Amino acid sequence: MFTALLKFSTANAQVPFYKDASQSIDSRVKDLLSKLTIDEKISLLGYRSQAVPRLGIPAYNWWNEALHGVARAGEATIFPQAIGMSATFNEDLLKQVSTAISTEARAKYNLAIAQDRHLQYMGLTFWTPNINIFRDPRWGRGQETYGEDPFLTGRMGSAFVKGLQGDDPKYLKTSATAKHFAVHSGPEATRDKFDAKVDEKDLRETYLYAFHELVKNHVESVMSAYNRVNGVPNSINKMLLTDILRKEWGFNGHVVTDCGALDDVYLTHKTLPTAVEVAAAAIKAGVDLDCSSILQNDGIKAIKQGLLTEKDVDQALSAILRTEFKLGFYDDPAANPYHGYGADSVHNEQHLALARKVAQQSMVLLKNNNNVLPFKKSSYSSIMVVGPNAASLDAMIANYHGTSSKVINFVEGITGAVDKATRVEYDLGCDYKDTTHFGGTWAAGNADATIAVIGLSPVLEGEAGDAFLSESGGDKKNLSLPASEIAFMKELRKSVKNKPLIAVITAGSDVDISAIEPYADAIIFAWYPGEQGGNALADIIFGDVSPSGHLPLTFYKDMSNLPDYSDYNMKNRTYRYYTGPVQYPFGFGLSYTTFNYTLGSKLKSAYKKADTVAVTVNVKNTGKFNGDEVVQAYIKYPSIDRMPVKELKSFKRISLEQDKEGTVTLKIPVQDLKKWDLATHKWKLYPGSYKLVLGSSSADEKLVADFKISN
Question: Which member of 149, 192, 202, 258 is catalytic?
């Protein structure tokens, strides 16, 4: 017996405390820190984390992307771009998407580690979602966001985080990152030196709102942005990274810089003179992980110069080690619930079906003259599919994308949806530049119907450097479609005469629809719809599903009423503060069917701060097709200076068959109606008269109910 106990004791002693999965994470982190030298600690503070062989710590690359599918890591399901997924107004579906993404991520990680591969983009720490507010349609990266509204962004972003991180009580499935913190939405060309000037009210109510929501929903990481806010670079901004994020909001994950952002502090912002001082300032402000090499190269120098202490380093390293422990990096892999995911979890039929469903719900029907859509297949023996984006891979997969062997473009989707006796032709039609030479116009005139796929692509709008054909560093100078496409649509209209001409527009943001609207009988805004976009478009064109996407941003008539692009003041921006003319309002989207609303319950006449405004709405499908409706609830505030015109505070999607009725319940906590008081620097609930407005867009008022709020 004694010999057996001795063997057990010896074996147990050989397992370091930090590898004992039965211990608390904080105690394991503390133990591991005690075993690391200061040089080893510093070597772990960069995204290319160095191996510490004597402690069994492998090298790890923290940089991974999963904006709308596992990106840059080989075969993976490509879902619609983020702005398109937001157009679904379906947070439950978005959580299904991010759950599929995290499943594929775990599988690819397991497969790579099994071959002792520790590659960039094959890890488990994802720098997504992008929850910056799409405040101006010129911003090229707006396509990566969930739109212009803080509430919608907070809801969709939180759903995405929950699916990425999983619901296991002990282990993270993957780690999500809320980016870019904060007040970051262009201009792209000057992001490395730009100073966003913003007052406390806009900062709190608009730019920080969604970040706070994700922190409340336990996002594991936050990424600091390139720009300055009121003179201070985000990556050394103690007020944001420590005072608000950690102390006020209680964030307990890790903070990572955007890539090269610390270099910008002394090279472009020039707010500090040397990299050594930047290294010290970043850690003291609340940065834990550096997506560059400054902390690893200059951290030791900062300590030697007395600008930083080992205790400061320990605090930063503790945060990223906690994430590693939550991911199970130091535990027996077999104990992890995600260890069994393998090749059959990547890009499988279930994920392809999900990508198709999301693409269906993302596409927005903007026009349907005389109900020309949907097409009845038996009525069309020949179809022309034409346009520069009809067979474009870029227009399907957007930016921050993965790769797929099964992308179905628009030509392929339409071709695959009709029988073999139907003639389908394709022609490029035009390019993005030439306004005089066109193809396919004669063939279009010879067909029963024409589908023209035009719009933008990720090389015309996107991130600085990536959108290499953009004339303004990734951003758009204006809302115009390429002049060549407008001229092409005019020629098509002449050729097809009175036959149906459907315009399908790909883009990641607001574009001037009016330039081509007179020439199209119907217009579908398809965003960048992912690898199943062609099938999803065919499903809508031929009526297998009714379109149900809604715009997550305002489509302005033009930009003449908008403030200067570099102005971060929210006055006269987005549906919340803009009172000028629009093409299509926030939340807009047509259907093949119609819906009628009646109140199922009445509001109380008055509410107090601890109450919840709850209402049930009976929705009836009164048209001729099955379809989905998105019931949107907006609040109109008392007439007080700087209150929004109106504000989305709840929404719910409901699926209804023809002539069927269903009920949705919408709840708005009165606490969510607080606004920031500049005098007291606190949130304040303003007493007075409010309105609840229910409809299918921000401009639709199907039902209106008045109520008061008292102290």
Answer: 258
